[in-house]
Specification:
About 60% of the residues lie in helices and about 0% in strands. By secondary structure, it is mainly α. The protein folds into two domains: about 80 residues, no CATH class; about 200 residues, Hypothetical protein af1432, CATH 1.10.3210.10.
């Protein structure tokens, strides 16, 4: 019998976290108010400082206080740090699988940011956030049944190694989840987005990515994608979906094989590469910047 997603325990937000998320959702955001809220919650404060010192930003000097961290991160990236603090707050449920999932999310987040900086600079902060939370449903399923989920991750890792050797018979993580739980982390992630009341576009992009929805290209009229113009990618949502897909294709170039596990990627490498109008030198530059 599968899990009833409405009964699945979701991350609980501390009073300070709720207050901070509400403050970040307003049009008139005061950094001083944010600093006061964060300073009252040691977990939030340490998470935001840690996030400001993460490899995403390549800081030359260490950030040691909330005020400096807020000034350097900016509003959208503070949101990312808050999510990390919430998901890491229940230390009793954390395990090695949690750390592996976070490693995956952080590497995808970094790749998304650097890909966007090349082909859609105004989306870089949004893509960093989407990359960080796009598989957050994995954490929820792992906290629901850690022993079973650890087994699924190990099986997906073996499938990754088999694929590299040309054996395509292994199952991807989302399919293993559906067998074990009746739902995949994709569906759970969208529910978490609703739970945290993220901007609607964030949940829509993640849902569309996992569903493999392609809004622009008609495969009947453009079967080979033989074009170069950026006009073929008309909307920010399209670019976000292709950036997220490409980040997954590039992940194996920046992390060790022990951190990789197969999950369905909706669009193949060549499709993303062409639609985002990249070339191999740019891709090489991106992966070098993201070496972890």
């Amino acid at each position: 019998m599968g899990i009833d997603i409405l009964q699945l325990p979701l991350p609980q937000v501390s009073p300070s976290g709720v207050q901070l998320l509400e403050a970040l959702s307003t049009d008139d955001i005061d950094f001083k108010d944010l600093e006061v809220i964060i300073s009252k919650d040691p977990t939030l404060a340490s998470s935001i400082i840690k996030y400001a010192n993460s490899p995403l930003y390549h800081r030359h000097s260490k950030i040691s206080n909330v005020q400096t961290a807020l000034g350097l991160l900016g509003i959208k990236n503070i949101r990312s740090a808050v999510v990390m603090a919430i998901m890491r707050s229940d230390k009793t449920k954390q395990n090695n699988t949690d750390e592996l999932i976070w490693k995956h999310c952080e590497s995808i987040s970094m790749l998304c940011r650097h890909i966007a900086k090349v082909c859609a600079p105004k989306l870089a902060d949004d893509m960093q956030f989407i990359g960080l939370i796009h598989d957050i449903g994995m954490l929820v399923l792992n906290h629901y049944d850690a022993k079973k989920y650890e087994g699924l991750i190990k099986e997906a890792q073996l499938s990754t190694l088999s694929e590299k050797q040309g054996d395509m018979r292994g199952k991807k993580l989302d399919l293993l989840e559906e067998q074990a739980f009746g739902i995949s982390h994709d569906v759970v992630t969208v529910r978490v987005c609703d739970h945290f009341r993220f901007v609607e576009q964030v949940g829509f992009v993640i849902d569309s990515y996992h569903a493999g929805i392609d809004f622009d290209i008609n495969p009947e009229t453009d079967p080979e994608i033989g074009f170069e113009s950026k006009e073929h990618v008309k909307t920010d949502v399209d670019r976000m979906i292709y950036i997220l897909s490409l980040a997954h294709h590039l992940e194996s170039q920046i992390v060790g094989s022990e951190y990789l596990f197969t999950s369905t990627i909706p669009f193949d490498y060549d499709r993303c590469f062409k639609l985002l109008c990249l070339d191999e030198s740019l891709v090489s530059q991106i992966t070098k910047q993201c070496q972890m």
